[in-house]
Amino acid sequence: MSDYRLKFTAALLSSTMFAAAGPAFAQEDTGTDIQAAPTDEIVVRGAYIPDEKRVTSEITSLLDSQDFETSGDADIASALTRITGIAVADDKFAVVRGLNDRYSNTLLNGALVSSPEPLRRAVPMDLFPTSIIGSATVQKTYAPEFGLDFGGGVIALETVALPDSRFLEIGVSGKINSSTTLRDGLLYNGGGDSDYSGFDDGRRNLPEALEPVFADTKIDSSVDPAVRQGIATGLADWTDFVVQKGELEPSGGFSIEAGDRFDLSPDFSLGVIAALAHDNEWSNKEGVRRNIRLGANGIETRDDYARFSTEQNINQSALLQVGADILDNHTVTATGMLARASLKEARTLQGFNASEGRNIRIDNTEWYERQVWLGQLRGEHIFPALNNASIDWRASYSEAMRDAPYNRQLFYEEGVNPGTGEQVFRYRGRTDGNLTEFSKVEDDSTDVGIDGVLPVTVFDRDVELKAGWGYYEKNRDTFLRQYRFSGTVPSYLLFSRIDSIYSPENVQAGLFDIVEVGGVLFPDNFRGLLEIDSGYVGVDAQLTDYIRIAAGGRYEQSIQVVDTFNVGEVSGIEGGSTITDFDSAIESEYFLPALTLTWNPLENTQLRLAYSQTIARPQFRETAFSIFQNTETDATFRGNPYLTNSEFENFDARLEYYFSRGQFVTLGAFYKKIDNPIEEFNISLGETFASSFLNAPSADLYGLEFEFEKTLPVNEWLEGWFGFTNPWLESKSWNFKTNYTWTQSEVSADGEIRIALPSAGEPALDVVDAASFIVDGRNLQGLSENLFNIQLGYEDDEAMSRATLLVNFTGERIRATENLSSNLPAILEEPPITLDFVYSRDFLAWGGDYTVGFQVDNILDDDYEASQSDGATSIIVDQYDIGRTFSVSLKRRF
Predict the structure, then answer these.
(1) Which of 411, 470, 495, 737 could be 428's S-S partner, Cβ–Cβ 3.0 to 4.6 Å?
(2) Is 499 helix (H, G, I), strand (E, B) or coil?
């Protein structure tokens, strides 16, 4: 860790402890109905018992619309960083208590959601704008109502609630970034002017000659030459993919939300809400990217590039929700939701390449469309005649897609221009100097279930009996097609633009042919299936006036299969089919327990103790023996079909003390014993490095969590510190929130691991000593030892204004683990420290109700950095600037 980060960590710890140990102020009158804090759903027993139908007996953390407004977070990914024990990787994926995203699941209105990410099952949280999400709950201790695939936790999203009355809200926003706005960026036409909408205008459609053979024919010498020439001619139009420099404009977006309620009779009401949002954001990333090699004295830089890229992110979301309230006890809701993100990027790497022995330049143009849509019907029913028994049911279908057409890569090398005599970059001129790639992921899931609660009285004690059933099916198809123009480029064309080199005229003149690459040692495509049948039982009982117990168990029977195949081959996976012939097959059957004990010895103090057993299934991509590239880091991945489920024992304890409603201090501890944790490790693929996956023998994870939240009227603060008050300050208050999580883990190298090696036909199984791959006792991949959040807010009820200063610190973590057999060190990343400021104010003007907002992100101008070290030498392998972002927004309510 750098000196700068060490000093900042010490400052954060000092400020946290100072706030928690500040002057003692008089407690407010709490009455008899302490409710859940805005950031933590808490069941307080004894004299303070809230409505048990709306709260959970487990340890959870909650963010709602008020929290989103206070922090100014535009999407759920950034909002989750404010929660105790939560970090976010790649600006998208939640890491709960140091366990990376593969160990967490995402629910939307109770249903599992499909993911458009090719390398992950986890749903990217940046797809969900806070404008359509009413609350985000992170459940950290297991309850049998959730699936057994529960390593770190469950992130439960709920869409905005149906309105009580008619409303319309329109908002606009704009932002500038110090590293991007009005600066030069890399631009290309791509899909034309329609790219601003996030949709291609058709220019990225398959060429007419390629479309009929794209799905089932590999383009090689066996294909008719006339057909190959037609395909090559169609792919040779590079006009829209020529990269040029241009000034980048400010970013911005808009949102519209509307709703109404119709009381059709005393016993029947309809509610409807609709929301639409669009955001267009530009960002430059300038830094370095390096590859290492093993030298005589340890690691050394192999390839050393300056990296510059320009990204255009276009995010859209739409929500339509209709609900019916019947007899005040029955609600049926239909929800349709679409979340979409398109990324257009131009990227160049320029520097020394060891294989070439010279300076080269690599240019990439990329377009990615990610989309998730969900259709859901759900019901909530309460039966007063049966002691308020309840039944909740759901039926959901979701689809996710990631489409990446016409992603292109070009290689240039230094040469002397014969016309000018200047040393410039010229096109490489070989078959391996160009690549045109098409890839796609299609993922769909079906989730149906029913949950019932029956309240009864046993020996004058309240008891809730719970039971439920669920079925989940997930299908994923992914493919990759790669083409190169073959043939030597004539010397007179080497210094020309790429659209002049690979032009339709030159293809038709017979200078170039087209060839498909890939699928030699590793299949390019896979199909995956996961089916889960489940059921659970549980009891939630008030044993004494001050002790509550929640206990239960969940049964799951599952089948997970992955089949890899090349173009022209057909995968045989069908729902319910035999699995003996597939590359990877995991059948499992579990019945696992969960127990939570809550003790409330005092009216404002509560202790929770929890124990559970859960699992974590490997992701499809991790078990598919094929090659894929991570577009975030340009890293290459290869799956391992010999992975198995990870199994967890979870222990939790938390002590909670309440000052008053929504104001508290908590101290928690947790421990997890993990068998067969899944880890990503470095491997060699020829002269380049890549990653694969393995089951480490075991791991222990443990940590502490601290939270403190206090709202303090300014007059009380003045009186406590200085002994006086001011009537003018009656409407003003300070709000302070801080949390800190310390986490440690130890991965054991005591045992054997199973890895996959290339071979003819099926991949070969190699069983090796874990100590030859893993450093015994090191941290789990993705774990940060320290996580901090601090929010200092000032609110003026009379002026209707709010100002908040927010700090987020995520400590160093492993991006990819070491490989001792190749002496390759782990890649360590240091996420940026973020210091943000958010201000908003409501006002009345011109007959309307308005909110104006101002926000500054990354005030410290910290950047992203990843490195590898062998102890003696440390090499930065990935680094780029983020810049400061200044945002303004305006909303009008009707």
Answers:
(1) 411
(2) helix
The string of DSSP codes covering 360-378 is EEEEEEEEEEEEEEEEEEE
d(CA 435, CA 440): 16
Neighbours of 574 (CB within 10 A): 10
Enumerate the β-bridge partners of residue 789.
739, 808
657 and 37 in contact (C-beta within 8 Å)?
no
* pLDDT at position 363 over 60: yes
Whether 73 and 66 have beta carbons less than 8 Å apart is answered as: no
Planar angle of CA 57, 62, 64, nearest 5 degrees: 135
Decide if 708 contacts 738 (C-beta within 8 A).
Answer: yes
Answer for the pair 145, 867: CB distance below 8 angstroms, yes or no.
no
Closest CA to 695 of 744, 645, 650: 645
The closest alpha carbon to 856, from 832, 831, 889, 811, belongs to 889
- Identify the bridge partners of residue 530 per DSSP, sorted by sequence position: 474, 560
Residue 635 has pLDDT above 70, yes or no: no
The confidence band for 631, taking pLDDT boundaries of 50, 70 and 90, is low
Distance CA 556, CA 536 (A): 9
Nearest to 131 by CA among 800, 891, 894: 891
- CA-nearest of 138, 66, 58, 63 to 105 is 138
Q: Report d(CA 388, CA 51) in Å as an integer.
A: 12
Q: How far is CA 491 from CA 485, 499, 849, in A?
A: 16, 16, 68
Tracing tokens 């049966």 back to the chain, one arrives at 386
Phi-psi domain of 782 (left: phi exceeds 0; alpha: psi -120 through 50; beta: other) = left
Determine whether domain 3-893 maps to CATH 2.60.120.260: no
DSSP type of residue 223: S
Q: Whole-angstrom Cα distance, residue 39 to residue 663?
A: 10
pLDDT in tens, 20-72: 444 333 333 333 333 333 334 434 343 332 333 334 567 777 888 778 777 77
- For tokens 């706005």, name the residue: 181
Which amino acid is residue 320, in one-letter code? Answer: L
Provide the strand spans (E) within 749-847: 752-757, 764-769, 786-796, 801-810, 813-816, 827-830, 834-845
Count of Cβ atoms closer than 10 Å to residue 281 Cβ: 18
pLDDT, tens digit, for every residue of 672-714?
A: 999 999 887 777 665 566 778 889 999 999 999 999 998 888 8
- Report DSSP letters for 440-479, one per residue: EEEEEEEEEEEEEEEEEEETTEEEEEEEEEEEEEEEEEEE
Other Cβ atoms closer than 10 A to 224:
8
Q: Classify residue 83 by its DSSP letter.
A: S
**pTM for the full model?**
0.84
Phi and psi of 382, rounded to 5°? -120, 135
d(CA 859, CA 837): 8
Structure-token pair, residue 517: 């690459």
Residue whose C-alpha is closest to residue 59's, from 185, 176, 152, 165: 152
Instruction: Say if CB 859 and CB 872 are below 8 A apart.
Output: no
Say how far apart CA 176 and CA 75 lie, in whole Å. Answer: 18
> What is the spatial distance between Cα 796 and Cα 799, in angstroms, rounded to a whole number?
5
pLDDT computed for residue 852 by the predictor: 94
- Whether the CB-CB separation of 584 and 565 falls below 8 Å is answered with no
Structure tokens at 604: 């404002």
The dihedral through the CA atoms of 124, 125, 126, 132 has a sign that is positive
Q: What is the dihedral of CA 791, 792, 796, 799, to 10 degrees?
A: -80
Is residue 638 within 8 Å of 757, Cβ to Cβ? Answer: no
CA–CA distance, 859 with 887 (Å, rounded to integer): 12
Whole-angstrom distance, CA of residue 122 vs CA of residue 108: 13
**CA–CA separation, 736 vs 833, rounded Å?**
19
Separation between Cα atoms, residue 256 and residue 271, nearest integer Å: 17
